[in-house]
Write a structure and sequence with these properties.
The protein is mainly α. The chain has a domain of about 45 residues. It is built from 1 helix and no strands.
Length: about 70
């Protein structure tokens, strides 16, 4: 014999299912956000490195020029 769940049971099931779906979606969104910030941080680090190299080269060029 098959038992049919009552309205309360169905509501509980769907609420749980929706909550799990929402948490899964949040987790995926959060993961993407973390990845995006990680890439931004890496790009910023690279740009900061280039900026330091440029500053070093400019300083070296100024110091190597003979005074006129």
């Amino acid at each position: 014999m098959v038992t049919v769940p009552d309205a309360q049971e169905r509501k509980r099931y769907w609420t749980k299912l929706c909550k799990e779906e929402e948490m899964s979606r949040f987790s995926t969104t959060r993961h993407k956000e973390i990845e995006r910030y990680r890439h931004l941080n890496q790009a910023t680090a690279v740009l900061n490195g280039f900026e330091l190299i440029l500053q070093y080269n400019q300083r070296a060029n100024l110091e190597s020029r003979p005074l006129a």
